Amino acid sequence: MKLGIVGLPNVGKSTLFNAVTKAGAESANYPFCTIEPNVGVVSVPDKRLDVLRDMYDSKKVIPTAIEFYDIAGLVKGASKGEGLGNKFLGNIREVAAIVHVVRCFEDENVVHVEGSVGPLRDIETINLELIFSDLELIERRIQKTKKLLKGDKSLQKELDLLERIKETLEDGKSARTLDLTEDEEKIVQDYNLLSFKPIIYVANVSEEDLLDHKDNKMVQEVRAHAQTENAEVVVICAKIESEISELDDEEKEQFLSELGLSESGLDKLIKAGYKLLGLMSFLTAGPQEVRAWTIKVGTKAPQAAGKIHTDFERGFIRAETISFDDLVAAGSMTAAKEKGLVRLEGKDYVVQDGDVILFRFNV
Ligand code: GDP
User: Which residues form the TGS domain (predicted)?
Assistant: First the structure.
């Protein structure tokens, strides 16, 4: 489950990606993550872990992590094979969601590929490449479905859907702007269209504008566009992020509070990305370690247990569960048990974000 960083040249992608890799999580904790030069693994910030560490006097804190994939080199004409166009579009196909960096800072020393800063134009340039690539894929699919339709009339519905997608793309709109039923959504998901992938727009602003806490005109443009796609916008200053990523935790807190910021742009982006991927965390806690585990929203208790160990899933008996807030209110697990706040949940329980769980299982 990777987030792919895309954007035109010279908008601040590498600066942001460097901040990602420097802030990088200890990879020993994340054996599932890919170790490649253009993949960065970062911890998902979660203040609840610190609270649990103090409660349990734990030796170790292990946050969960997500991966960013640096997809540099996307340019105008990529869908027609300009530059290494097809390769980059293929890279985007592999990611679960897109982080689109948009330049919202003026700096005469930094050349803009189009000669001037224009966030909306830049967004459209990139989006059109993805749309062109999708259009090709949809047209091929329409041809195929038409042939199959002769033998199987039930495909008419899908053909109608494909034609609807095609119209939207031909209008220059991303597939994610389509109004779909739940069933249609599932079908379109399988096509793996680039312009259907969930997206976050990162408005990269100057140092001054970041500290001003006001949206400049360029950020407003990005927000207006994002709204048409129901997408989120995260405002950052890549330059400041790259400075922050050099600092340890304590220095970082101090630096941010001096700037009047409550959290770093990267932390905001990580949290937004985690949510965008439909992910959430449940927690385990004890004197050895407190730890966050990533699951998809809607995951049931045995499958959540399987994230820790396959034996936990196979031999699942029950999940002793309490919400983080209830645990904190009670003050300790012992007190929470005395108050009857710890629930015994079975195999159909849908795990909630922030559940603190102890799994019971047969070996
Ligand atoms: P990429 O081509 O999108 O990867 O862009 P880079 O990250 O290499 O950035 C291009 C240039 O813009 C570099 O010289 C950066 O130092 C500069 N830059 C990136 N972010 C900022 C920013 O927030 N403010 C300013 N003033 N310059 C930036």
Answer: 278-361
